[in-house]
Amino acid sequence: MAAVVPAGSVRVLLPRPWLRNLRRAARPFSMVVASSPIQHSEELSNTAAVPEPQMSKNTDRNSLSYYPKRGQTLELVCESLAFKGKGICKVPETGYIVMCDRALPGEKFIGRVTRKKDNYAEVKKLKTISPHWDFVEAPCEFASHCGGCKTQNLLYEAQVRAKEQQVHELIVHVGKFPKKDLEHDGVVKPIVPCDIQFHYRNKMEFSFGTKRWVPVELLQQESAETNEYALGLHAPGFYDKVLNINKCLLQSDPGNEVLATIQYLWRDSEFSLSPYDVHSHRGFLKHLMLRTGRNVETGQAELMVNFVTSSYKPELLKPLVDKISAFPSVVSIVNNVNTSVGNTSVGEEEYTLIGKSTITETLRGLTFQISANSFFQTNTHQAEVLYKLIEDCACLKGDGSEIVLDLFCGTGTIGLTLAKRVRHVYGFEIVDQAISDARRNANLNGICNATFVQGDLNKIGDNFGEYFPNPDLVITGYPLVRWINPIPPPHQPAPEIEIILDQLPKPN
């Protein structure tokens, strides 16, 4: 019998005969609920004067009035949360489904229809009539505008309940798992919440931009024009507009100190620093990536600062490097050079400007070296919970006889935490840098019974199993998780992590 053991931010699924059906069904589902780009707030009219809702009493599905028209205003009540934190509402008297960004369960509001899909419409919230059930004051000043923390003003316990409900409905409606089996056998278990709700991310990536995005409701308070340079996070639905951020409650305090310092300095005309323009493909600064680790001996935070630029010109970065290198927590400053026109933060070349080329982190008693482009669980605290749960669910015998197959292994962190209790771990991953990191971390921890192979698991042949002994345990990560749960990890407190475990029959 399949079993799901969510752990707040952690879900573990054991043997699942229904995975094949899930995989086929997940893509159509994600297309149905995929969100459309959010309108730029500057393009929306000021919502101070809200028109009266235009309601139709005709409930005939065959009538055009059953479907709300674009631009129509409706009085709605949010019933639940769905994909990307969008609120699900029903048009009164017809039951037609509409979805609203930043609407939360129990909230009554007036919204304007902005877009129509095949079987639902999207609305823009204009005015809240009564707040939602579990309202809390969002501690971040950017929460109402940033695309990352859409539900920060929802009580964390309510966030957990909403995510649990989403996964339950996904397994039933997409996976075709009988609802009565879930309820009778207790397959879906409660989420284990994260103890840390803020400052939990060990990696944050900010973008430099030529257009500073100002929400419409703040335009009268801002003296700056929207074409002013910015450093922060992308405006919701836009790749070329950046919301200026001085402090992010998701990252560490040392990370925020460095961010504030760079914000203060980089626009100074004396330094001749320009942000990269995604339209003209001119400019120097593309991204600022901040990674936080821990010193293995002292336990103190250590910070890596990664400047992603369009070319290698260390003399331009020198004023910033000299300033931030004075912070005790900064032990590494690197420069990734990305000459492509794309928006990726991974460079073709990497240069160490100050200090080390890696930082360290400990997980389940092991030490990991993390480079600028390494994959590492972004919530270290909850990764401890996740990996302990995986070990418990693996039901290892403890005699060191089992073979573990770790598919899509990334930097091999899961397999390496199990290695000392099994005979051998075989890890497979397409990203060459990740495999190099996995091998390095195996050597760093004195683990000799782990083999990591670079290869595309989407193109394996029938002879794939000839390269390793018949495994007792298969661990597979993100790609299969994505098929069964297209709900993205919210950047509000405690992101969700999911892993599928599959026990294979023991070899004869």
From TrEMBL:
| Claim: Transferase is one of the keywords in the record | yes
Single GO term (MF)? RNA methyltransferase activity
Extract the coiled-coil ranges from the record.
Answer: none
Which residues are listed for S-adenosyl-L-methionine binding in this entry? 377, 408, 429
Alphabetized Pfam families for the sequence: Methyltransf_31
Looking up InterPro entries in the UniProt record yields:
Methyltranfer_dom (IPR025714), NA-bd_OB-fold (IPR012340), SAM-dependent_MTases_sf (IPR029063), TRAM_dom (IPR002792), U5_MeTrfase_fam (IPR010280)
UniProt-listed CDD domains: AdoMet_MTases
User: Under which EC number(s) is this enzyme classified?
Assistant: 2.1.1.190
| Stored PROSITE patterns | SAM_MT_RNA_M5U, TRAM
Q: Output the SUPFAM superfamilies linked to this UniProt entry.
A: Nucleic acid-binding proteins (SSF50249), S-adenosyl-L-methionine-dependent methyltransferases (SSF53335)
Every copy of the TRAM domain together lies at: 67-127
What keywords is this UniProt entry annotated with? Answer: Methyltransferase, S-adenosyl-L-methionine, Transferase
One GO biological process this protein is involved in is: methylation
Note down the stretches annotated as region Disordered. Answer: 43-62
Transferase listed as a keyword:
yes
By sequence similarity, the record places it as follows: Belongs to the class I-like SAM-binding methyltransferase superfamily. RNA M5U methyltransferase family.
Its protein name is tRNA uracil-5-methyltransferase
Q: Which organism is it from?
A: Handroanthus impetiginosus
